[in-house]
């Protein structure tokens, strides 16, 4: 079943009244429905190219904050260098925000203009 199909099953409880109900008595009935199962939205963390940040610094960022090995980090760094941007991970909103803040802080501490952003998937 697709996520869209799962979401379409996520119905709230319905309040049902017969046509004779006048809404001031005790004749309303709450009909039990399926529980909500919506997953939280995911966010892509993006790394942007610039002309000044050293390649080895970007590789170190990808190893340190995104758990990549050296070969993976080098490959993604080169993708950003050539294409201008790459997705470096997909996370919950809170984790994505933390990753972006960590990268931006680390770059600022080292006086590099490296930019990291997030967007809803
Ligand atoms: N373009 C940079 C250089 O030539 C390297 C670089 C790669 C910078 C990836 C940022 O996200 C980046 N030194």
Layout of helices and strands:
Elements: H1 3-8, E1 14-16, E2 29-31, E3 43-48, H2 55-66, H3 70-83, E4 85-91, H4 93-109, E5 115-120
Antiparallel strand pairs: 1-2, 3-4, 3-5
Helix pairs in contact: 2-3
InterPro entries: ClpS, ClpS_core, Ribosomal_bL12_C/ClpS-like
Subunit structure: Binds to the N-terminal domain of the chaperone ClpA.
Domain Adaptor protein ClpS core: 38-117
Helix/strand order, N-terminal first: HEEEHHEHE
Q: Bound compounds, please?
A: L-tyrosinamide
Radius of gyration: 24 Å
Largest sheet properties: 3 strands, antiparallel
Low-confidence stretches: 1-26
**What is the CATH fold-level name of the domain at 51-120?**
Ribosomal Protein L30, Chain: A
Distance between the termini: 20 Å
Number of helices: 4
Helical proportion, percent range: 40-55%
CATH superfamily of the domain at 51-120: Ribosomal protein L7/L12, C-terminal domain/Adaptor protein ClpS
CATH hierarchy, class of the domain at 51-120: Alpha Beta
Produce a short descriptive summary.
The chain is an alpha+beta fold and 121 residues long. The protein has helices at 3-8, 55-66, 70-83, 93-109; strands at residues 14-16, 29-31, 43-48, 85-91, 115-120.
Description:
Binds to the N-terminal domain of the chaperone ClpA. It holds the Pfam family ClpS. Involved in the modulation of the specificity of the ClpAP-mediated ATP-dependent protein degradation. Residues 1-34 are annotated as: Disordered. Keywords: Hydrolase, Protease. Helices cover 40% and strands 21% of the residues. Mean pLDDT is 83; it is low at 1-26. The chain is built from 4 helices and 5 strands, in the order αβββααβαβ. The chain has 121 residues and is of the alpha+beta class. A 3-stranded antiparallel beta sheet has the order 4-3-5. α2 (55-66) crosses α3 (70-83). The protein has a domain at 51-120: Ribosomal Protein L30, Chain: A. The structure holds L-tyrosinamide. The site of L-tyrosinamide (TYC) has 13 residues, from β3, α2 and α3.
């Amino acid at each position: 079943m697709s996520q869209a199909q799962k979401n379409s099953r996520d119905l709230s409880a319905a309040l049902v009244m017969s046509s004779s109900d006048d809404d001031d008595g005790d004749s309303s009935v709450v009909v039990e429905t399926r529980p909500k199962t919506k997953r939280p939205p995911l966010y892509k963390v993006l790394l942007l190219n610039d002309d000044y940040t050293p390649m080895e610094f970007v590789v170190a960022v990808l190893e340190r904050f995104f758990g990549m090995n050296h070969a993976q980090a080098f490959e993604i760094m080169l993708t950003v260098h050539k294409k201008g941007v790459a997705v470096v991970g997909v996370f919950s909103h809170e984790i994505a925000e933390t990753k972006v803040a960590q990268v931006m802080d680390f770059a600022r501490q080292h006086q590099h203009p490296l930019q990291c952003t997030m967007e809803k998937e």
